Amino acid sequence: MGIAGALTEAHRSQGQQYDTFRVRGKVFGYYWPRTRTAGLRQTLSEQQALVAERPDVFEVQFTSGGFGWVVVHLEGVGADELAELVFEAWRLSAPEELVAQVPDLAGGVRAG
Fold first, then answer.
1. pTM score
2. φ, ψ for residue 96 (rounded to 5)?
3. Distance of CA 19 to the CA centre of its chain
4. H/E element holding 53?
């Protein structure tokens, strides 16, 4: 999930079982190397759409605080799609002033 490193104030912490991605203390993603899966914050509607369209690649992780976390089987997604999902997870977690500093993926992600 190298895209996370290009996002403003995104930090990765490595644990024994998984890595955690945060922006200003808020978790926006997880990575489990053993299973080659990631968990990413999404909107509830996006969580439902991803799982409905490709249940072999996406599964419901949990819902919390109006967000739907989705498990992503990394072998089933391309780099561009993963980048969009990571960006969206970061955007949903970052404060508005940080989001305003970073263009959307159509304009390219800029290091902060």
1. 0.87
2. -55, -40
3. 12
4. helix 44-53
Q: What gap in Å lies between CA 66 and CA 92, rounded to an integer? A: 11
Give the up-direction half-sphere exposure of residue 52: CA atoms within 13 A in the CB hemisphere: 6
**Domain harbouring 35, CATH code:** 3.90.1150.30
Average pLDDT of every residue of the chain: 90
Identify which has the larger pLDDT, 53 or 3: 53
DSSP per residue, 21-79? EEETTEEEEEEETTTTEEEEEEEHHHHHHHHHH-TTTEEEEEEETTEEEEEEEGGGS-H
User: Is 42 within a domain?
Assistant: yes
Gap between the Cα atoms of 12 and 27, Å rounded: 10
Quote the domain boundaries for residue 73: 2-99
**Is 110 domain-assigned?**
no
> What are 87's two structure tokens?
């960006």
